[in-house]
Design goal:
The complex is a heterodimer of chains A (about 240) and B (about 350). With about 240 residues, chain A is of the alpha/beta class. Helices cover about 40% and strands about 25% of the residues of chain A. The longest helix of chain A has 17 residues, at about 105-125. With about 350 residues, chain B is α+β, with helices and mostly antiparallel strands. Chain B folds into 2 domains: about 1-115, no CATH class; about 200-340, Heat Shock Protein 90 (2-Layer Sandwich). Chain B is built from 10 helices and 7 strands. Chain B has helices at about 5-30, 35-50, 55-75, 85-155, 165-195, 205-215, 220, 240-255, 310-320, 350-355; strands spanning about 200-205, 225-230, 235-240, 260-270, 270-280, 320-325, 335-340. Chain B starts with 6 loop residues before the first helix and ends with a helix. Classes of the chains: A alpha/beta (about 240), B alpha+beta (about 350).
């Protein structure tokens, strides 16, 4: 972490803003608050390191802010939204948001997601990590090789591409649409069953118990996530 | 009601009217010599009544046909449409009036019936609303009261709490807030199911559904043994969000009300997929196997929302499946859920994608 990083909180509920400000202050971040879409756009010009965005704002949809931001910058955006709004989450993730948290959430979860997003954004533009590790799973990109506990695992080209994407975004959710577009091409974005079939075979090859996945997590109605290795080095 | 019946049904009722008159005429011709004119008229009234309970149109048709047939076949001079005796005109009038009166009464009765049915539906949604109100007032207020109590006590300088006491109160606040979350999630799903929202179905492997339910319950399941045994290649066509919620509720129910080990199994049975969640506790009290799925049923010993299993049934039935509770072989509670199996949609994703793009 470099000095005091700025986090922009765009949220119309003053109580929620208060909790977020107190919590993030305590974690050594500086917090700028915005209670509306317009305020959020104004505050975003101060180049925050990360944006926490509520979707239901009094003067518009948080989705608009994400689209506007993505028009000119790569600042990580984490969406905070209520449960049961999976379709909204998917829309805003597909528009370029980096991750989402379902209200209500615990502080530990929030901080973990912020750290993951900041780590990815710091790595952006630099050389890509040649190797990503998630617990026993090790993805070696240049050698095109995957091992579990040091034992080589044979993956089909599709399985490798799928795992590689999840590993490049370790800790972040990737929507069905994103994964389908990147792995199978734009014509396949509706075919979620391709994804489900290959996630199942990946789990069989990589998880100890594919019916109780510890690394390749499902986000129902949204997508998949490779568990952040930084947080879960030791399965509990 | 006649208006809502389809074409085939309507023409059917007219055929019945015509047939009834024909039968009576045939019968009348056969026994004509033994009967008085009045008795013959009575027979026609029976035919009109049969037609009239099928609606006003058939009633009028039967009355007209009866007048014509009675007049032609029986009233002197026979086999003409001439009426010699004016008293027969009264008979004709009675036939029409009877037909109209009976058909009017029948329609009024049908309308009443429809009203009663509508009122029953309204009463049921009224019941749902008052049930939800009772959840809101009890299941939301209790945790809120605990949270408020704990928080104010933590803030109060006069409460003289030691470190352990503070810790305990803070834990209570977190636990009760999580309970509130569950109540709200359940209310949300219940509303979705009860308002008859069509589930957004997708092809999903059972393994993925069970896996994500177990991941969501990771914290609650810590320290519990869960045996998972899923037949391979099983898949269903469900709304993944709703269905995961149903599975979460079933497993959570086994943890809260049963005893470990808990088992989750799935296998194919003919054209169906059967998912079983069972525990090794004391089992359900005999006779409550159906009642547990009712809204706001709850085991008196454990805290919780009486919505969990009602959601399970609501979600499963919205998908065209069934769920039942029964004793397990070891005497615990077993919940058995059946859904139509769904074969994998036709496609060879691996081959297709590899043709399109070279491997990196």
């Amino acid at each position: 972490m470099t000095g005091e990083q700025i986090i922009l909180v765009v949220e119309d509920e003053p109580q929620m803003r208060r909790v977020l400000r107190t919590t993030l202050d305590g974690q050594g971040f500086r917090v700028i608050e915005a209670g509306s879409l317009a305020d959020g756009m104004r505050a975003a010009r101060d180049t925050p390191a990360l944006v926490l965005l509520d979707l239901g704002l009094p003067d518009g949809d948080g989705l608009e802010l994400v689209r506007w931001l993505r028009g000119w910058c790569r600042v990580p955006v984490i969406v905070i939204s209520a449960r049961g709004r999976e379709a909204d989450k998917v829309r805003v993730l597909d528009a370029g948001a980096d991750d989402y948290l379902t209200k209500p959430f615990g502080v530990a979860e929030l901080i973990a997601r912020i750290r993951v997003a900041l780590r990815h954004s710091a790595a952006l533009g630099g050389p890509e990590e040649p190797v990503v590790e998630a617990g026993p799973i090790r993805v070696d990109f240049p050698r095109h090789e995957v091992t579990v506990d040091g034992v080589a695992v044979h993956l089909t080209p599709i399985e490798f591409r799928l795992l590689a994407l999840l590993a490049r975004h370790a800790g972040q959710v990737l929507t069905h649409r994103m994964l389908l577009r990147e792995v199978w091409g734009p014509s396949a974005i509706e075919h979620t069953h391709y994804l489900r079939v290959h996630m199942a075979t990946l789990r069989r090859k990589l998880e100890v118990d594919p019916a109780r996945p510890h690394w390749l997590l499902t986000e129902p109605g949204v997508g998949y996530r490779l568990r952040d290795p930084g947080r879960a080095a030791k399965p509990t | 009601m006649a208006v809502t019946e389809n074409r085939g049904g309507r023409s059917g009722t007219y055929a019945v009217a015509a047939a009834a008159v024909a039968v009576v005429t045939g019968l009348g011709l056969a026994v004509y010599v033994y009967l008085e004119m009045v008795d013959l008229a009575m027979l026609y009234l029976v035919a009109i009544m049969v037609a009239a309970v099928r609606g006003r149109g058939p009633a009028l048709l039967a009355a007209s046909l009866s007048v014509a047939a009675y007049n032609f076949c029986f009233t002197p001079p026979r086999f003409t449409l001439v009426v010699a005796d004016a008293r027969h005109l009264v008979t004709f009038a009675v036939m029409f009036v009877t037909g109209l009166a009976i058909s009017t009464l029948t329609e009024r009765l049908r309308r009443r019936e429809a009203e009663v049915r509508e009122a029953t539906v309204r009463a049921r949604s009224e019941e749902l609303r008052s049930s939800i109100l009772s959840v809101v007032s009890h299941d939301l207020r209790t945790p809120l009261a605990v949270i408020l109590g704990a928080a104010t006590s933590l803030r109060d300088p006069a409460s003289n709490l030691d470190a352990g006491g503070r810790e305990e109160l803070l834990d209570t606040v977190v636990q009760e807030a999580e309970r509130l979350e569950r109540v709200l999630a359940n209310l949300l799903s219940m509303t979705r199911v009860e308002t008859g929202l069509t589930p957004a179905r997708e092809w999903v492997p059972v393994e993925e559904l069970v896996g994500s339910a177990l991941t969501r319950l990771e914290r609650i399941l810590a320290g519990h043994t869960v045996e998972v045994d899923l037949e391979r290649e099983l898949a269903v066509s469900v709304d993944p969000v709703l269905f995961e919620h149903a599975l979460v509720n079933l497993i959570e129910n086994a943890v809260k009300h049963g005893a470990p080990p808990i088992a989750v199994r799935a296998r194919r049975r003919a054209d169906e997929v059967e998912i079983v969640v069972e525990d090794s506790g004391a089992g359900l009290p005999a006779g409550t196997e159906d009642a547990v799925f009712k809204m706001f049923a709850r085991a008196s010993s454990a805290p919780g929302v009486g919505l969990g299993l009602a959601i399970v049934r609501g979600v499963v039935e919205a998908h065209g499946g069934r769920v039942i509770a029964e004793p397990s072989d070891a005497g615990g509670a077993r919940f058995r859920l059946t859904l139509p199996a769904t074969p994998q949609p036709a496609a060879a994703p691996e081959a297709m994608a590899d043709d399109e793009r070279a491997a990196p």
